[in-house]
Amino acid sequence: MLGDERSGLGEYLRHHRSEMTPRDRPGASPLSHRRVPGLRRQELADIAGISVEYYTRLEQGRASRPSREVLTALARAFRLSNAEQDHLFRLADERPPQPRAPAAEIRPGLQQLLDSLDDTMPVTIHDGRLDMLAFNVAAADLFGPVFDDGPYGHNIAYQAFTSAGLREVLGNEGAEQLARVAAAELRKALSLYPEDEQLRSLFRELSTSSPEFSRHWERGEIGTWRSAMKRVNHPTRGLLAFDSEMLHDPESDHWVMLFTPRRA
């Protein structure tokens, strides 16, 4: 590790320690007052479960490369977000840990965006495991027949190869496009979350029951699509065209898909 990287790591640790308050220390009184902002090194080391001598060397840039276990303990002690934890690992010249799972809940801001566009455009939100988390009223009106119930819920990959209403809504070309994208996105999801048992079970299920999935899987593609033009057959409004755009919230690994109506 280079000297400036050690210095950057120490500075990062000092900054976060200075931002903590005595109430962040287990058992501390919320009425505690300190002349110096932040926790003492001893207090932070106690929370992280490491020696204060070693923690001091880390802050001063005098320690050897910290282990992944120590970095994980520090991230937990500082209550770092995923992005902050990743930065901590990079400062220590370590590869950031793989996320274990996407966030279970949608951020309030995304939910507000979803609801506010009910009268403007269809919007859906799914996570990095391809589980559909939410869709607004406009999306339900448009894609309702596609979202069948099943053992894997509203998982996009599962629906792409099993939904009875898929071809009626998307047409043959659109259904083929979705199947190709779903297989490629499932490959990416499995690489991100290799120990996720539901994803592994889904892959086994589709591999044994869907020749169409096997055909697309053999392409070896991995998800890279962010924009597309989609045509949808609406039961009362006829054939509609949309430009779709995918936006990513990396902290939660949630994907927002916006469907902008094409002008005639």
Automatic annotation (TrEMBL):
HTH cro/C1-type domain boundaries: 38-85
SMART domains cross-referenced by the UniProt entry: HTH_XRE
UniProt-recorded Gene Ontology molecular function terms: DNA binding
Matches recorded under CDD domains: HTH_XRE
Domain of life: Bacteria
Record region (Disordered): 1-34
UniProt-listed SUPFAM superfamilies: lambda repressor-like DNA-binding domains
Descriptive protein name: Transcriptional regulator
Lineage of the organism: Bacteria, Bacillati, Actinomycetota, Actinomycetes, Kitasatosporales
